[in-house]
Amino acid sequence: MSSQPQSAVPDLSIPSYLNADNLGPWGNYLRQVDRVAPYLGSLSRWLETLKRPKRILIVDVPIELDNGTVAHFEGYRVQHNVSRGPGKGGVRYHQDVTLSEVMALSAWMSVKNAAVNVPYGGAKGGIRVDPRKLSRGELERVTRRYTSEIGIIIGPNTDIPAPDVNTNEQVMAWMMDTYSMNQGQTATGVVTGKPIALGGSLGRREATGRGVFVVGCEAARRTGLAIEGARVAVQGFGNVGGIAARLFQEAGSKIVAVQDHTGSLYKSSGMDAAALLEHVAKTGGVAGFTGADPLANDEFWTIETDILIPAALENQITEKNAGKIRTKIIVEGANGPTTTAADDILHDKGVLVIPDVVANAGGVTVSYFEWVQDFSSFFWTEEEINQRLERVMREAFAAVWQVASEHNVSMRTAAFIVACKRILMARELRGLYP
Ligand SMILES: NC(=O)c1ccc[n+]([C@@H]2O[C@H](COP(=O)([O-])OP(=O)(O)OC[C@H]3O[C@@H](n4cnc5c(N)ncnc54)[C@H](O)[C@@H]3O)[C@@H](O)[C@H]2O)c1
């Protein structure tokens, strides 16, 4: 037995269920939180709250495949913080999803929801599955079994999932139906991002890309960059990247480079985003598009642009490529695309980074509108939704911009200051139970 005195409070900030030597995206999130600590004043006594997810559920998702065999997939739902309201966050289907990743994504949802001041906590879900390898029937069975398994912790007043990478309106319809069948009543408010015919909101599909566009314009305006003629590069040409590209092009910008999981494209005079969207809808990726030239994947990051929009997955801008990036503004459509080491390199180069927790908050903002509309069974026009979305995004951007100038910190640290203060204030006002 050791004679060393034991501290009453052991350091458990790295949970035993993660690999302490390789924390993955959760480590990136922890480093971001640490940067906020000096700005929280007396609220910093609650900081540890943000470093521990409130609740983690890991589920086995078995389904019968079309060929008669049984396959098992690993599923997660993490509720990071629910001090300000029910958990809220998407569900990701990807073969590389890990617990660390879902934890980080859930925490970024807490920060995001607080940064734009919607009354939600943060949550996220995921399944380790490559949905492209499943038939439609298999995808439906995976979705329904997963929803049933996490049904014990989700609900319209407790935790409300939404689409994320590789999930869409149809997946949300199956989730809503499964939850409703288990409850014995239709519960449209259990998920957002549903089809319009099932209580979905007008404008939801485009909301994240539109929010990226709105904050991109705000950043450009405040730095004296003209949107018309601006050179824009987009990584990820799915829901977020594709819509953002289309809106920038409609405003007169040139989409000079694009990259997705199938390859990269370049066209110095700007490619037709609408035509590229059609090509992706038909073929599943940007490769083979004849309206631009193919580009080596590594070169994508070196193209000179005014605005760069990472809208694919996390950890795309790292210390390896940050030094090569030649752009003025980065608008993070994806969650967690930039590591903290890359953040510092970009900062030193004078690149303005609009962080994910503000830049891609348009989706959750219109999800909030959808949830409100479902509860009141009263639906708004698309114009009303877009106007309200733009107002929320502009106000959030302005508040974060002001804090960044006040403390002379990055927009990311400023967004975390605004958000963490709101979350920890709720924690303090509520007090610790029991
Ligand atoms: N959909 C939303 O409302 C929403 C809201 C907030 C944040 N986000 C974030 O935006 C990002 C994209 O989400 P989405 O909904 O557009 O997903 P999506 O599935 O519609 O599109 C993902 C895109 O990323 C590309 N991609 C995947 N792996 C890649 C790789 N290794 N290299 C280059 N490109 C790759 C895919 O080809 C695709 O174009 C994610 O980080 C997601 O968490 C989405």
Automatic annotation (TrEMBL):
One of its GO terms (molecular function) is oxidoreductase activity. InterPro entries: Aminoacid_DH-like_N_sf, Glu/Leu/Phe/Val/Trp_DH, Glu/Leu/Phe/Val/Trp_DH_C, Glu/Leu/Phe/Val/Trp_DH_dimer, Glu/Leu/Phe/Val_DH_AS, Glu_DH, NAD(P)-bd_dom_sf, NAD_bind_Glu_DH. PROSITE patterns: GLFV_DEHYDROGENASE. SUPFAM superfamilies: Aminoacid dehydrogenase-like, N-terminal domain, NAD(P)-binding Rossmann-fold domains. SMART domains: ELFV_dehydrog. Signal peptide: none annotated. Keywords: Oxidoreductase. Gene3D superfamilies: 1.10.8.1210, Leucine Dehydrogenase, chain A, domain 1 (3.40.50.10860), NAD(P)-binding Rossmann-like Domain (3.40.50.720). The keyword Oxidoreductase applies. The keyword Protein transport does not apply. Belongs to the Glu/Leu/Phe/Val dehydrogenases family. This is Glutamate dehydrogenase.
